[in-house]
Amino acid sequence: MNRARMIVWTALLVGATVSISAAQAFSQESALDRRVQAFIDSHRRSWRAMNVPVSDGQALYDVIVRNGYTRALEIGTSTGHSGIWIAWALSKTGGKLITIEIDEGRYREALHNFEEAGLSQYIDARLADAHELVRTLLGPFDFVFLDADKDWYRQYFLDVYPKVEVGGCFTAHNVSDRGGRGARGTAGFVAELQATPNLETAFVRGGGGLSVSYKRAPS
What we know:
seven-stranded mixed beta sheet, Rossmann fold, alpha/beta, disordered N terminus, about 20% strand
């Protein structure tokens, strides 16, 4: 029994009324899941151009879905792998992603990938210099993913963090708290995370290395 029929059958058993439009919504959701998963599977070995590995994409997806985030910002689209995971999660929460890429070739390829994966309606992709655009975005955001020029990480954080809601999450790629290759160019950023009041940060090892920071209310 497929997921849509199982939900309808369960509702009938408890005496609920399930409309045709609701059943269609379940079917459409399932169809989108299959389309995205098929796209990810078929491109699993083809991502290049500084995209995240699958394990990190899954981690971003899990953070968004678990917390119900709906207003996401990505700095550094590349050709769209991380954006696909983020937008897939946002399709579950009713949210939308703003993603920024400076390279036109990568931007155009990302647009194609978003369309092929069936996620374009959840993504506002912008061809721009994030150094400038990020400062002008109004927010607020409840989820941020940073994967751009490493020596600018600290400045991106300073520009965006005031626009992150309490309870929101700021994540960054290719970051480590142990120094070495994973922390190349990001030491100042890591120090800023650790010095920021009411910010709880964990570091996910494996994959490309992620920092995951939650903004808490002042005590």
